[in-house]
Amino acid sequence: MAKETGNQQLEVGGGLRFGGAGGNPGNPPESNGFAIFSLGGRYFTSDADTSPYLGGGLTWSYLSLWLPGEGFSGNGSGLGGYIDAGVQILRTHKTHLAFGARLDLPCFNLTNSNSYLGAGTPAPAPTNVYYAPLSFELRITL
User: Fold this and answer.
1) How many structural domains does the chain have?
2) Positions of E strands within 22-90
3) Which domain holds residue 75?
4) What's the CA gap between 14 and 32, in Å, rounded?
5) For residue 83, what are the contacts with CB-CB under 8 A and spacing of at least 6?
6) Alpha helix positions (H), the chain
7) Exposed / middle / buried, residue 4 (Cβ in 10 Å: 0-12, 13-18, 19+)
8) SS3 string of 78-123?
9) How many angstroms separate the CA atoms of 124 and 85, rounded?
10) Nearest to residue 137, comparing CAs of 64, 45, 49, 36?
11) Does residue 94 register a pLDDT over 90?
């Protein structure tokens, strides 16, 4: 959900973003997941029909990461921030289309809850991992 200002160069809004990925049969099943609620804004470089933008804001995130080859399995939640950039087209129309990338920057580490690689072998796994999800988007604003 977003609201543009009168000159169409500023936009403020909030959103919910979630995602995840997993391995495939040929590779170890590394996986990650996230759910992120955010409030922020974007600055468009012009009020033309096509314009690049830069944005940022505050987030509350739940993050999960599993790296079986490294013996790490952890999750965490808390506050953070994000930065994003991209291009929006059809800005002078009711419906907008945007292509962009976003980097979420949590203010917390994920703590390892896995103490074994498997078969009872102790893992020399890291105890904390900083995980910053990078996501790409195709966004339609109605």
Assistant:
1) 1
2) 31-44, 51-67, 72-89
3) 2-141
4) 23
5) 54, 55, 56, 102, 103, 105
6) none
7) middle
8) EEEEEEEEEEEECCCCCCEEEEEEEEEEECCCEEECCCEEECCEEC
9) 38
10) 36
11) no
Choice among 75-89, 96-110, 114-128 with the minimum mean pLDDT:
114-128
| Residue 18: per-residue pLDDT | 84
Q: What is the DSSP letter of 30?
A: -
Phi and psi for 129 in degrees, rounded to 5? -135, 135
Which of 60-64, 92-96, 119-123: highest mean pLDDT? Answer: 60-64
Q: In 10 A of CB 104, how many CB atoms? A: 21
For residues 74 and 138, is the Cβ–Cβ distance under 8 A? Answer: no
* Contact (CB, 8 A) for 104 and 120: no
d(CA 11, CA 8): 7
**74, 110 Cβ separation under 8 angstroms:** yes
Neighbours of 41 (CB within 10 A): 16
Q: Are 47 and 34 in contact (CB under 8 A)?
A: no
